[in-house]
Known about the structure:
This protein has 167 residues and is of the alpha+beta class. It has ten helices and four strands, in the order βααβαααβαααβαα.
Amino acid sequence: MERTLIILKPDAMQRAIAGEIITRFEKVGLKIVAAKIVRPSKEEYYHHYETIGKMVSRRGRAAFDVTLEFMQEGPVMAMVLEGIEAVSLVRKMVGETEPKSANPGTIRGDFSHISFSFANTRGISIPNLIHASGDAEEAKQEIAHWFKDEEIFEYETVHDKFTQGKK
């Protein structure tokens, strides 16, 4: 089974829609194998967004700085989800990074709508509710950054037969 990291960002937590977002992942058959609410330091976010994610080289220093500032506005919920091709499934469910471009039916398409241009003209981060690992290698690094081995659980559910192909 593949594992991926999601982070429910401060806007998801402050809008009290974490449960609704989590329910979508459970309904599709992904299993929560780790979860915690935390308020990481700037250094921890730097490691996540730059050391692992290379955000400065991909999106520029200004985007990186406003993202770090936004992420420190409140607690976040970090979770490890497990399932068949979990990384790509979660990315599909989350939708495009820019909420305005996210399709209806995706998390960002249903719960947010702000565009990059709107955020850029105001010098703010785009509140897009959730972070999802970009690929399997990034997921492994992010999971190791956010969770100790003993915080990740293996267990069976009554749905494993149908959601994970187990006999």
